[in-house]
Amino acid sequence: MIYDFIKALRASNIQISAAETMEAIETLNHVGLFNRQLLKDSLSLVLAKTRDDKETYSNCFDLFFTMATNETTEMAAQDTLDVVPVAESKKSHSDELQNEGSSSLLELLEQSNQTALAENIAIAAQQVQLSNIKIFTQRGIYARRILEQMGVNELERKIHDLARVGEEDAYNYLKLRKAQTLESVLELVDKNLLLYTANSGANLRQEILEKTPLARVEIRDFKTMHELVKKLSKRLISIHSRRRRKAKRGALDVRQTIRKNMQFDGILFNTVWKKVRIDRPKVIAVCDVSGSVAQTARFLLMFLYSVHEIIPKVRSFAFSNQLGEITSLFEKMPIEIALNEAINQWGMGSTDYGGALHELERLVGDEIDSKTTVLILGDGRSNYGDPGHLALKRMHLKSKSVMWLNPEPRTFWNTGDSEMNKFNASCDRIESCRSIRHLERIVSDIARRTV
Amino acid sequence: MKESSNADKAITVLKKSLQEHDYIASQNISTAVYLAQKLSKPILVEGPPGVGKTELAKATALLLNKPMIRLQCYEGLDESKALYEWKYGKQLLYTQVLKEKLSELMSDSESLKRSVEKLNEFDDTFFSTDFLEPRPLLKALWAEKGAVLLIDEIDKSDLEFEAFLLEILQDYQISIPEIGTVKSSVPPVVFLTSNNTREIGDALKRRCLHLYIPFPDSKLEREIVRSRIPNIEETLEKQIVSFVQEIREMDLKKVPAVSETLDWAKALILLNVHSLESNIVRSTLNVLLKFQDDIEHIESEIPTLIRSAAR
Fold first, then answer.
1. Is the domain of B152 the same as that of B73?
2. Confidence class of residue A68 from pLDDT cuts 50, 70 and 90?
3. Per-residue confidence at A18, pLDDT binned at 50, 70, 90?
4. Are A390 and A298 in contact (CB under 8 A)?
5. What is the pLDDT of residue A322?
6. Cβ–Cβ of B206/A37 closer than 8 Å?
7. Which member of B46, B202, B209 has the closest CB to residue A46?
């Protein structure tokens, strides 16, 4: 049973290793199965190892064990004498079942023994490995398999016989009972489906979304997208939030070495090597929110918002025909409001790259230094106006690097009014950034690229 | 069946005795401590700052009557500070002092080879446990009656250090090249705490029980306040706790933790306050909230909060 539970947990995205499974079993030996709260607490200590996991775990536990105990309560309600613990009774019944062969369903229905029936369903479910169920459409197949396992064929033959002979009452009775059994089997299958596949559908959807070009993502998926971006930024934060020091191998820090070894009478025991402190990058981000990129603007901004969460020193600007700073907007507002505000305030004009880049240079030109990365999100289409590449070039000379992320695929660059060639000369890196996957790679790169 | 009722009882007893040592534990926490002892596994305690992660280790040490050894983690913490170090100074001093003795010993050996052989006989003296300075981890392994080892804020340490801990946490042993493997006779009870400033590695998580301590609910928090500040008036205590609970629901930079509730309660008692009033709350808010932004944010809502707290 514990294996099934772990399988259910894994299906809802909690990672559990084989070693942890063994620990769970050992834990069971210590706490036993009979105090539910205790069991829940102790298994949660062993199996769910992050805060999110704990929540999922709790839901999963409740679902799984209501299912397991449903059988017991039914059993207890039906025949009060039966106080044998579940595990044991199950075992004995499965032995019985094997002895009796497949005639049991018919007999059970004739005896109308609810308890034994529920149990037999559970056992049959185990035998056909119901926990392997993957998708919704398998529901019918599994239900049928369970029924067959319980000997439905014989029952059907009997019903058929009865119909031929003409015993109306018995026929109707058995038919009704069969329908009831089917109902309860289906119910069990549904619960299992919920338990073991809760997430696989959502996972599939997310996986597809990660690869979909931003422009094609529909509004209804906005929420899922937001979750994805959030997950992404969380992951990146945990990787990059700490400033790291890197040992410069081979270079002796003479000053530190002497200082450290003063306690040994100046005899140099311990050597200290020079280290390079990796600074957090300073980023100035500019996002095109004009009509030409209207489709992707939201997602680019969303991405920018997550950059804000990861890298502390970011200044963000948005522009279409005018350029304005949106840093404080991003820092104070929740994401939905910030995005709408940014687009309402600065978006929906026609693009003016020349004006925007000159304005940017005027605003932050003095701030750009050798630690600054300038990040531009846009399609580089300037409506045949001045692309402002000279301003970009001047900023490029002062900055550490200039990156350009273009939501268009490479083959569209330099067609029509796209000026990517001109910008190319003053960028260190140009990437086509079309899906969440791309975003992740690029942000991680910015955060890491420091030396 | 027998086991489970045993476990039940043991946990209830544990909870009670933790309470005697001024630590109000939830069911979950006491289960964790119980299992950690049974499975002899370390506990990784996570939770927001100030919910009593470190206190839990202290209370457990008192309860088990074992010494508590604390290792505070920080960036750049390495073996020599966490595990052991050779007493170089002492080694040097001894060689100086024993110089003459040595030359005396050496004087009768004719060949160089002979003297090297002779020196070899003394070789190990200088790398024995006498010249070893034990740091927290080694101390915990050496402790004869076992110990409670608290590795505080593991998330502040480097990734390398985390990897280095794995051997100790799994087998309770450590290898010192010059001496060999040191294995503890009585495995220490180990607590690791983390504030979640970074994700802890899976390898480490796998070896630990994972306990998440959230902010307590109002019932538990009231118990905590009562046990820590026994002379507090009931009305005040109730108001304080519900006030703090309300604040925690709000959107703040840093929500007040249990320790701040306690500090605030103590401050109010010192000021001889019997029930919450706007102007007093306003002037003592800085005990509870640590950011000016938060204080300004709350200030306008103080009367509403007090009204609902008084209910």
1. yes
2. low
3. confident
4. no
5. 81
6. no
7. B209
Q: Does one domain contain both B119 and B198?
A: no
Same-domain status, B75 and B89: no
Domains of chain A, earliest start first: 2-200 (no CATH), 244-277 (no CATH), 282-448 (3.40.50.410)
In a domain, B254, yes or no: yes
Tell me whether B8 touches chain A (CB under 8 Å): yes
* Chain A residues inside the 8 Å CB shell of B32: 41, 45
pLDDT tens per residue across span B260-274: 899 999 888 888 888
Whether residue B209 and residue A33 make contact (CB cut-off 8 A), yes or no, is no
B128 touching A (Cβ < 8 Å) = no
- Side chain identity at B176, as an amino acid letter? I
Among residues A273, A274, A278, A285, the alpha carbon closest in space to that of A242 is found at A278
The burial of B109, by beta-carbon neighbours within 10 Å (0-12 exposed, 13-18 middle, 19 or more buried), is given as middle
Based on the fold, state whether residues B121 and B98 are members of the same structural domain.
Answer: yes
In terms of CA atoms, which chain A residue is nearest residue B48? A51
Count of structural domains within chain B: 3
Check residues B7 and A77 and name the one with the higher pLDDT.
Answer: B7
Q: Shortest Cα distance from B67 to chain A (angstroms)?
A: 25
Residue B181 placed within a domain? no
Query: How far is residue A152's CA from residue A139's CA, in Å, rounded to a whole number?
Result: 17
Residues 216-255, chain B: which have Cβ within 8 Å of A?
none
Domain assignment of residue B119, given as a range: 84-132
| B96 part of contact set with chain A, CB < 8 Å | no
> Mapping DSSP to helix (H, G, I), strand (E, B) and coil, where does residue A432 land?
strand
Q: Can you give the pTM of this predicted structure?
A: 0.65
CB contact under 8 A, A27 and B35: yes
CA distance, residue A238 to nearest chain B CA (Å): 5
A38: tokens are 């205790």
Same domain, yes or no: B102 and B128: yes
B84 Cβ neighbours under 8 A, 6+ residues apart: B132, B133, B134, B135, B138, B176
| Predicted-complex ipTM score | 0.76
Q: What is the pLDDT of residue A447?
A: 63
Q: Under an 8 A CB cutoff, do A38 and B76 touch?
A: no
Q: Which residues of A touch B5 (CB under 8 A)?
A: 32, 34
